[in-house]
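Data availability (excerpt). All sequences and predicted token strings are deposited with the supplementary files. A representative entry, 5-formyltetrahydrofolate cyclo-ligase, is shown inline so that the format can be inspected without opening the archive.
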Amino acid sequence: MTKTNHQTNLSAVHLRKHMRMQRRSLSHCERQRSAYLASRFLYKLIPLLPKKANIGFYLDGFGELPTATIAQFCQKLDYQAYLPITTPNKPLTFTPIIQPLNKTPLKKHRLGMHEPRSKLILSANHMDAIICPLVMVDLNGVRLGMGGGYYDRTFAKAKNCLKIAWCYDFQVTDRLPKQPWDMSVDIIITDQRLIRLK
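Structure token line:
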């Protein structure tokens, strides 16, 4: 590992720790308020999506901006909402949720997150949009994830879908270092704004 890469990795470790602490410092009410504010910007996606769009998103569980409002948005617009299924070192696949979201049977997987119990699996290239978590994202769409590479592998296989970052506004920064394998997002949605990058 070169000195530059070593410094980048140390920086990423520090950023992940700092941002996770900042997210976890928010109260339940603050998180829910932020999710409501962010959900208002979802309606700006309508002109960019086909009717009956397939929307992939994730279940928050580690202090991320809550995502239940995404499921509600999909239900109102008659979009099909999907949750990711993780397989080590492979792109994510997706399975449909049952509306309302709390009717979807879930299980906890090895990374500590919840995913649906379902045998109906679609590849990422069937999604019209994928809304992803992150630690930080910059104004060029470069995202810093948790280091597993799941969304980079997934976005590399789903080139035609809208790639959307969903986060608190304090997770947006001017510039992050970009690695050769990093896949940028097209849109950033926060509790304060929607930023269209492409």
